[in-house]
Design a protein that fits this description.
Elements (H helix, E strand, L loop, with lengths): L2 H21 L5 H30 L18 H14 L3 H33 L2 H15 L9
Helix pairs in contact: 1-2, 1-4, 1-5, 2-3, 2-4, 3-4
Length: about 150
């Protein structure tokens, strides 16, 4: 399996969760916290694999990261999304938590779109088939999908 197929498949599995959260965001504070915690766990695991497997393999083909006015690197999309979900969980006001959660879901959708239309296309163009397969096998090993290092 190629890494891009695996990561796109995870996006496909996450989209219904995003929709569910959008459709049930009228819930109370406890439910909003639970939704944010679930999303933080699933997105965090997904983002970690992207950052550890795919990004290093294509870093030299990506544009330089944006910088803040003081010259430091700006937060990555993964960091912004994670901080947004942590803020939802820390919130003690349901209205504020709901607004933060919906904003973070929207940022997640925008981020997925960027990955699917830009980042993954760069990876498909620049990584050899064998490299994509090797990274896919590592994804499968880390996800526990295959007992061996390669899916047969």
């Amino acid at each position: 399996m190629r890494i891009l197929h695996a990561l796109l498949g995870e996006h496909g599995a996450l989209y219904p969760l995003l929709t569910l959260i959008e459709n049930t965001a009228a819930a109370g504070l406890e439910q909003l916290h639970a939704q944010a915690d679930c999303l933080r766990s699933t997105l965090g695991s997904h983002a970690d694999l992207e950052d550890e497997l795919l990004r290093p393999a294509i870093q030299k083909y990506l544009p330089p990261p944006p910088v803040t006015p003081d010259g430091n690197p700006a937060a990555t999309d993964h960091e912004v999304i994670g901080k947004g979900l942590s803020a939802v969980i820390a919130s003690r006001d349901a209205g504020h938590a709901r607004r933060l959660l919906l904003e973070t879901v929207a940022k997640t959708r925008k981020h997925f779109h960027k990955e699917e239309t830009i980042i993954f296309r760069i990876a498909a163009r620049e990584l050899t088939f064998d490299d994509q397969e090797r990274l896919g096998a590592e994804w499968a090993r880390r996800r526990g999908v295959c007992a061996a290092s390669r899916c047969e």
